[in-house]
């Protein structure tokens, strides 16, 4: 069996979640990868990769042409795998549609080549699913598979010509937020704020704490919806899934949809004035009190 992994490249490097996808795919046998736009050289250095299919002309990760390109190159592959990132979740279901197979999203465990474990009901239950499709199309949760390292491989690079597709969508512009902080989904430490941060101005109080800990900053959906933090910081069922070594939740109740995105964190610290807040049920350490008093004390202690 051979798996084909759709890689995502950021700042010239293969994203950590994609390197986790390579690790997961290696369970099936040989691994080839496909790269849209630049980045074939970085992909070729990944250990365990046999061939890199490079579609340098597809520069903007538009889902329709990407899915069409993948569909044209799946022959001979038993599995197509991508990270369950915004890109993977955009492209792979379309590919599954084109191939007329069932996509298997957010896989957290591979039992065998046909059997996969994935969360359902906002992460409250795990379903074991078996697929009889001839080609399995799956996205994997990066936090559930240790990534392969960045260096060590020497795969061959094969250039692909992207097929012409109907003009369903077109690239307009990209707006990247600039941040020196670690990427939320792969950060070792995450400091997250909720509605209890009061407003956007007070939400910024998390920054010095995050700086001290080298942490990424996350937010609840309520905090995002209230304009305290940008959308890309949202953690949870409809946001990002994180599993850092340390997750510090401030002024955040711990709604089931939020827990779905962070409950696999190794150590969870919660600061909340309500002793009944559900976040304390998953927290390893809890501080009941006003975050605006505790936050400066914590920072000082650090
Ligand atoms: P609240 O529930 O309002 O909690 C604020 C907390 O702050 C309270 O516990 C309060 O005691 C505490 N607090 C207030 N002031 C202070 C203070 N001074 N000091 C200390 N503590 C204080 N939510 C997500 O987060 N992520 C998702 O991906 C997500 N997806 C969703 C998908 C669906 C389909 C639905 C229906 C909902 C989703 N939600 C999601 C929303 C979720 O249900 C909650 O509404 C949201 O998580 C609540 O955010 P919060 O904890 O910040 O706010």
UniProtKB/TrEMBL annotation:
Q: Binding of FAD: at which residues? A: 220-221, 234-238, 251-258, 272
BP GO terms, sorted: fatty acid beta-oxidation using acyl-CoA dehydrogenase
User: What is the documented function of this protein?
Assistant: The electron transfer flavoprotein serves as a specific electron acceptor for other dehydrogenases. It transfers the electrons to the main respiratory chain via ETF-ubiquinone oxidoreductase (ETF dehydrogenase).
- Cited InterPro entries: DHS-like_NAD/FAD-binding_dom, ETF_a/b_N, ETF_a/FixB, ETF_alpha_N, ETF_asu_C, Rossmann-like_a/b/a_fold
Q: Which domain of life is it from?
A: Bacteria
Q: What molecular functions are annotated in GO for this chain?
A: electron transfer activity; flavin adenine dinucleotide binding
Q: Which organism is it from?
A: Gluconobacter wancherniae NBRC 103581
> Residues in domain Electron transfer flavoprotein alpha/beta-subunit N-terminal?
3-175
Q: Which UniProt keywords apply?
A: Electron transport, FAD, Flavoprotein, Transport
Q: Which residues form a coiled coil?
A: none
- Record flagged with keyword Electron transport: yes
Pfam entry (one):
ETF_alpha
Question: What does this protein need as cofactor?
Answer: FAD
Write the protein's name. Electron transfer flavoprotein subunit alpha
Bound cofactor: record note: Binds 1 FAD per dimer.
Name the PANTHER family on file.
Answer: ELECTRON TRANSFER FLAVOPROTEIN ALPHA (PTHR43153), ELECTRON TRANSFER FLAVOPROTEIN SUBUNIT ALPHA, MITOCHONDRIAL (PTHR43153:SF1)
User: Could you say which protein family the record assigns here?
Assistant: Belongs to the ETF alpha-subunit/FixB family.
């Amino acid at each position: 069996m051979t798996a084909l992994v759709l890689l995502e490249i950021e700042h010239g490097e293969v994203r950590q979640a994609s390197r986790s996808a390579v690790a997961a795919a290696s369970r099936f046998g040989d691994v080839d990868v496909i790269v849209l736009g630049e980045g074939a050289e970085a992909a070729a250095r990944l250990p365990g990769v046999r061939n890199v299919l490079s579609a340098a002309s597809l520069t903007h990760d538009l889902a329709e042409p990407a899915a069409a390109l993948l569909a044209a190159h799946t022959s001979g592959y038993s599995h197509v795998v991508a990270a369950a990132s915004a890109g993977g979740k955009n492209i792979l279901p379309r590919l599954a549609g084109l191939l007329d197979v069932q996509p298997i999203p957010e896989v957290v465990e591979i039992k065998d080549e046909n059997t996969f474990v994935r969360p359902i009901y906002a992460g409250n239950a795990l379903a074991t699913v078996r697929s009889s499709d001839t080609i399995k199309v799956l996205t994997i949760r990066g936090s559930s598979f240790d990534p392969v390292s960045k260096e060590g491989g020497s795969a061959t690079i094969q250039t692909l010509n992207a097929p012409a597709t109907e003009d369903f969508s077109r690239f307009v512009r990209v707006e990247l937020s600039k941040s020196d902080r670690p990427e939320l989904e792969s950060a070792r430490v995450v400091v997250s704020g909720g509605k209890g941060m009061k407003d956007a101005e007070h939400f910024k109080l998390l920054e010095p704490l995050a700086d001290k800990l080298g942490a990424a900053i996350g937010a609840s959906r309520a905090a995002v919806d209230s304009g305290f933090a940008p959308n890309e910081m949202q953690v949870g069922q409809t946001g990002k899934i994180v599993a850092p070594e340390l997750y510090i939740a401030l002024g955040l109740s711990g709604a089931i949809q939020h827990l779905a995105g962070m409950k696999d964190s190794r150590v969870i610290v919660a600061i909340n004035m309500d002793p009944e807040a559900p976040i304390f049920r998953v927290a390893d350490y809890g501080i009941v009190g006003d975050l605006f008093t505790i936050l400066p004390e914590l920072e000082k202690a650090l």
